[in-house]
Amino acid sequence: MEYIHTTVLLHESIEGLNLRPGAIYVDGTLGSAGHALLAAQKIGTKGHVIGFDRDAGALARSTERLANAVAKGLTVTLIQDSYRNIATKLDEKGIGHIDAFMLDLGLSSDQFETSGRGFSFKRDEPLLMTFKDAATLTPEDLTAKEIVNTWDESNIADIIYGYGEERYARRIARVLCEARKEKEIATTFELVELIKKATPRSYHVGRIHPATRTFQALRITVNDEIGALKQGIAAGFDRLSVGGRMAVISFHSLEDRIVKNFFREKSDEGKGTLMMKKPLVPSDAEIMHNPRARSAKLRIIEKIVM
Ligand SMILES: C[S@@+](CC[C@H](N)C(=O)[O-])C[C@H]1O[C@@H](n2cnc3c(N)ncnc32)[C@H](O)[C@@H]1O
């Protein structure tokens, strides 16, 4: 299996978790196990890696990458579910406290390039945008196609503005709602064309592709990424042992604000120590090597009382 995802802020986050041999490391967003592999080295064969991902493809890639460590004795438990359900899942496995909780939000380059689910505006694919793969998708699951074809214009505008920080949100929502009267919007390329139609020409030649913000907003909504983050960091912090740490890498201001406020709240309550006042960002060299790292921000907190 090939991996194209380059792990962001790898050493900074795993070093920052201060992992000891034998520790229980929970990765809420396992992806292609980039962080988990380094964590596995730190915790050694007596350690336990617990990895969550909603995407079966990510778990398959991780199984392969962690196989060597497992052969040497490391315990690995993979869970195909959202990290927001960490409390229930740890209960089911009979695990009480954990030593580290890692979140590297968003999606991996592997999903971008190969999922076939419409994450990238550069590929003509069905408008799904869900982290769940086709095998586990049910008619009740929300998709981007449902949003653009059935939601009220004002709700579409609100999410594109709120989660995409897209200044042309209202115009885009209006054009989508006009277009769908004629024909269902079914593919990424159809959506890209409509976004272009709704935005001025000057917007099409900028550094950022005109569809970037709308695609981000739809993906965040489809996967309830904000709800998952709020619930997941609270539940994860709750399960940390004293001295245990949580590291979160976020990729846009909305997510970073949620993490910052939660960590500050725990620090103000005297329950946690912030490991850095300002978020850590990738070096110029890392950004040059991996442009996806451009907007990454890392925050780490240590739990000091139960
Ligand atoms: C940026 S990637 C993680 C990459 C990983 N750290 C690595 O270095 O290989 C994010 C992963 O989190 C998963 N994901 C996103 N939201 C999730 C959620 N709520 N619960 C579980 N997995 C989630 C995505 O499917 C994706 O595989």
Low-confidence spans: none
Main β-sheet, spatial strand arrangement: 3-2-1-4-5-7-6
> What is the averaged pLDDT score?
95
Share of β-strand residues: 5-15%
- Can you name the CATH architecture of the largest domain? 3-Layer(aba) Sandwich
Q: Can you tell me about this structure?
A:
Helices cover 45% and strands 14% of the residues. The chain has two domains: 10-110 and 225-303, Rossmann fold; 132-222, Putative methyltransferase TM0872, insert domain (DNA polymerase, domain 1), CATH 1.10.150.170. The protein has helices spanning 10-16, 34-43, 56-71, 86-93, 109-114, 144-150, 153-164, 169-182, 188-198, 212-222, 225-239, 253-268, 284-289; strands at residues 24-27, 48-52, 75-79, 98-104, 240-250, 272-274, 297-303. The protein has 13 helices and seven strands. The longest helix is centred in the first third of the chain and has 16 residues, at 56-71. S-adenosylmethionine (SAM) binds at residues 5, 7, 28-29, 31-35, 52-55, 58, 82-84, 104, 106-108, 111, 131, 228.
Structural key phrases:
Rossmann fold, DNA polymerase, domain 1, 306 residues, seven-stranded mixed β-sheet, globular, 2 domains, alpha/beta, binds S-adenosylmethionine
In short:
This protein has 306 residues and is of the alpha/beta class. The chain has two domains: 10-110 and 225-303, Vaccinia Virus protein VP39 (Rossmann fold, 3-Layer(aba) Sandwich), CATH 3.40.50.150; 132-222, Putative methyltransferase TM0872, insert domain (DNA polymerase, domain 1). It has helices spanning 10-16, 34-43, 56-71, 86-93, 109-114, 144-150, 153-164, 169-182, 188-198, 212-222, 225-239, 253-268, 284-289; strands at 24-27, 48-52, 75-79, 98-104, 240-250, 272-274, 297-303.
